[in-house]
């Protein structure tokens, strides 16, 4: 038994009322049998912290660790009871002068990113206020003061989207997320208090999307709700994340499939003499993402367009040389024109129903590999990061990119 354990037992013995020899003998016998201090407290139900509290009362200010008795811990909300009993979480009491003759006791504690503090001129009253505050936090009633964090679903979601989410995703990703939120999530939850949202409410929405055969949307909504509730939990406006209990099967995403060379010819032949032929040729021989088509223009032998995957509103241009495969379709062209994506997709699906428009990008990447285009050039064409130090120190010349682009001939 360590010195600290011996000192703790001595404190416990001192706290036993005079004349209660039976209790003292029980404590000593328990110590002799090497029973832990926790077990001794359970046998005696003595407030072992009484002496430390008296020291706080008599000292001249400062901060001390505050120990709660078993009875006080039992009166805490279930969520926090286990934290204080098993995980060693402690509160600190700060003692300050309050007037000429009184003291003020402020109890502070942080549990699961929640800052909890109360104060009173009476230590026992401060402890009771602390326990009541724990109950408020568990129920979701208590919010940090003066922080302006919304506690209802729609208001908090919009706060999270604007303050955090928008800064971490590209413009197109944010637009798709907002569409899912407005069409599926908001109508289901409205602006109900976050503390009232249970797992079954979330499960109901996800199950409905699965029944409607919207598996991709269901996965996006699941991810969105998880992000929102995690953020609410970290902001202290929600005690638990209800998504943790939801049943969800991860949707297996299908990767793009390159067109065969016969399918390439079919697509361009079927649209000959229409504006769609030029649009599809640009998609096939530049690897642009469909949402980047509208930003494309011609400059010095390159197709230049925005890289839509850049975040934080940062605009980054990428350029793809006009290759031997693309050049015939741009004769006499100085400005590029694209119709609405919905129209382009409709035309494409009518010709190649077993493909999707994004497969034009997959086809371009595949042809670059087949024609021996340098990997660093291919990544530059499609707007992928080079990785590591290469992103910082690589600046490819136009001559190099055009020379690599000339390889794309088949």
Task: Summarize the SSE layout with pairings.
Elements: H1 3-15, H2 21-32, H3 37-44, H4 50-58, E1 62-66, H5 70-74, H6 78-86, E2 91-98, E3 102-111, E4 114-120, H7 123-139, H8 153-168, H9 171-189, H10 199-211, H11 215-234, H12 261-270, H13 275-286, E5 297-299, E6 302-306, E7 317-321, H14 341-351, H15 359-370, H16 375-382, H17 390-393, H18 398-405
Antiparallel strand pairs: 1-2, 2-3, 3-4, 5-6, 6-7
How large a portion of the residues is in β-strands, by DSSP E?
5-15%
What does the radius of gyration come to? 33 Å
Instruction: Count helical runs.
Output: 18
Q: Count the domains.
A: 4
The coarse silhouette is elongated
Low-confidence stretches: 43-58
CATH class of the largest domain: Mainly Alpha
Please tell me the CATH architecture of the largest domain by its name: Orthogonal Bundle
Proportion in helices: 40-55%
Compressed to H and E, one letter per element, the order equals HHHHEHHEEEHHHHHHHEEEHHHHH
Strands, count:
7
Quick check: average pLDDT?
82
Q: Largest sheet, described in full?
A: 4 strands, antiparallel
The CATH superfamily of the largest domain turns out to be Intergrase catalytic core
Which strand order spans the largest sheet, edge to edge or round the barrel? 1-2-3-4
